[in-house]
Design a protein that fits this description.
By secondary structure, this protein is an all-alpha fold. The chain has 3 helices and no strands. It has one domain. The longest helix is centred in the last third of the chain and has 35 residues. The radius of gyration is 17 Å and the shape is rod-shaped.
Length: about 60
């Protein structure tokens, strides 16, 4: 999965961090790069729970 990470991201994070005006920018870049994956995991978990509860009610 980590080998696909650079291919999926359009922006080069290393360049952004080198050109960062201060250290708080690095935190924002990190959060911004992880946020899409976190959202996808939450959506996948919600679908899993919905389907699990649906099966248990039948």
């Amino acid at each position: 999965m980590l080998t696909l990470l650079p291919l999926l991201q359009g922006a080069n994070i290393e360049e952004k961090i080198k050109e960062a005006p201060d250290s708080s920018y690095e935190i924002g870049v990190f959060i911004g790069s992880m946020l899409p994956f976190v959202v996808l995991v939450i959506i996948a978990y919600a679908i899993f729970r919905y389907n699990k509860n649906k099966i248990n009610k039948d």
